[in-house]
Amino acid sequence: MANPRRVVIENHRLSPLINLLKKPQAFPLLLSFFLFLTWITLRLQHSSHVSSSSSSHPKSTLKSHPDLKIVDDDDKVNLVRFGLASLSPVRKDDRGWLLDPIILARDSQLKGGAASCVSIHVGEIRPGGLRGNHRHHTCNETFVIWGAKTRFRLENHKVEKGYAEVVIGEDEVAVAVSPSGTAHALINVDPVRSTFFIGCQDNIQNNSSTSDYKIWKDL
C-alpha cells in the first residue's frame, strides 16, 4: 500500500510544473523543447551517416566527382582521371570533351602544377614509345593525357623506390601535375593506340642546363 505522506510530498513537488504546463505560455516553451530534441536527433543521424560513408570510401575527398575515378597511387603521382562514359568535368555534351587543364587541375586540388600556360606543347606517343624521363628545375608542368593505355611515372621521395607510377586506361582522360624539380615520364603501353598529351608549363625552357635528362635507366 502506497505511503500517503510520500504521495503528498511528490504531488507537492510536481504541482509547480503542472501549474506551469496549464498556462498558455507553456505551449511555445514545449514546442521549442521538442524542436531542440528533433534537431539533436537529426544531427546525430547525419554524423552517423557521414562516418559510415567515410569508412566505406576512405579515398573520397572534396575533389571527388561522380565520374572521377580514384585508383590506388593516383595521389602519389599527383593525378586524377575521368571516365568518358557519362557527363563529367571533361565531357560536357555528346560532341566530346573539352577542358582547361589549369582550371581542372586546380579544381581537382592537385598541388604544384603550372600556374599558367606560358609554354604549351601537344604531342603523340606511339605504342612502345616514351616521352619525358626528365626533370625541369625552372617550371611547374600540368599534363592532360588520353587516347591509349599509358603509364605515368612521377618522382616521389616519399615512396621507397623514389617514384610512383600508375596506368591510365584508353577510355580515360587524366590530368597530372609535375612540380618544379620533379622528374616525370609518359610511356605508351598500348599495343595499338597512340597516346596524346598536352604539356602546359608556367615558364619557357630556353636552356637545357635547367633540366636533367634520362633520370630512370629502366625506361
TrEMBL record:
<dbReference type="InterPro" id="IPR014710">
    <property type="entry name" value="RmlC-like_jellyroll"/>
</dbReference>
<dbReference type="InterPro" id="IPR011051">
    <property type="entry name" value="RmlC_Cupin_sf"/>
</dbReference>
<dbReference type="GO" id="GO:0005802">
    <property type="term" value="C:trans-Golgi network"/>
</dbReference>
<dbReference type="GO" id="GO:0005768">
    <property type="term" value="C:endosome"/>
</dbReference>
<protein>
    <recommendedName>
        <fullName>Cupin type-1 domain-containing protein</fullName>
    </recommendedName>
</protein>
